[in-house]
């Protein structure tokens, strides 16, 4: 599951709050210890600075359906301020992210999910 | 041909919110009224689900709680407009939403089911971590183990 990346491009120190670098390897990279991933060089150039490939949970589990009535499932895709978590964070595929977004909007109409949370 | 035998309809669901203080007999009355509407328009109600009084995410009609009712029914496209028009006329209905679930369903294939009442979903209020640091499956680990920089 965890795919160590190449790390040939060192991300900026303040590389965003969303963890665009895997925190567990930040130290390694800075010290130049790359032995744990030295044999991997095939697919470089694509993703940079990401810790692991995230898998769409709806693709991984075919039985799982996006359901706007399932509050607890939908919560997973909301920030504590009530915003929809973007695809690059949640790891959803495009199709399922669309479904999730629609479902969240439906749930908001029914007051199952908040439109916004003033102070979280 | 045999096309007269099969009636293809659509499956819809409508969730509507009632004011929390609505008495039970009025809830039943609304239910029967809606069932009559669906019947009149040539559809049929598969089931009503009383999802109980739940806390809403924001105040609805100045109240923190609402009674969630869910209705699953089949019918032709014009039915939803009529259904929602009736919902609008009922004063204790505060919110509603209809969703089409399926197209081209055989009318006779769906049987009428008994009305159900489910326990309201109790949500636990637990503090959530900042999502950048969430360690649940599928999310990035946070920055706590950042190297020296």
Describe this structure in words.
The complex is a heterodimer of chains A (120) and B (149). Chain A has two domains: 1-53, no CATH class; 57-109, Ribosomal protein S18 (30s Ribosomal Protein S18), CATH 4.10.640. Chain A is 29% helix and 0% strand. Chain A contains five helices and no strands. Chain A has helices at 26-31, 57-60, 71-75, 87-90, 94-109. The longest helix of chain A is centred in the last third of the chain and has 16 residues, at 94-109. The model of chain A is unreliable at 1-45 (pLDDT under 50). Chain B has helices at 24-40, 78-89, and strands spanning 8-19, 44-60, 63-75, 93-106, 116-117. Residues 126-149 of chain B have low confidence and may be disordered. By secondary structure, chain B is α+β, with helices and mostly antiparallel strands. In chain B, strands 4-1-3-2-5 form a five-stranded mixed sheet, with helices on one face. Chain B has a single domain (14-119), classed as Alpha-Beta Plaits. The A-B interface holds A 13, 17-20, 22-24, 26-31, 50-52, 54-55, 57, 68-69, 71-72, 76, 79-80, 85, 89-91, 106, 108-115 and B 15, 17, 56-58, 60, 66, 68, 70, 95, 97, 99, 121, 123, 128, 130-133, 136-149.
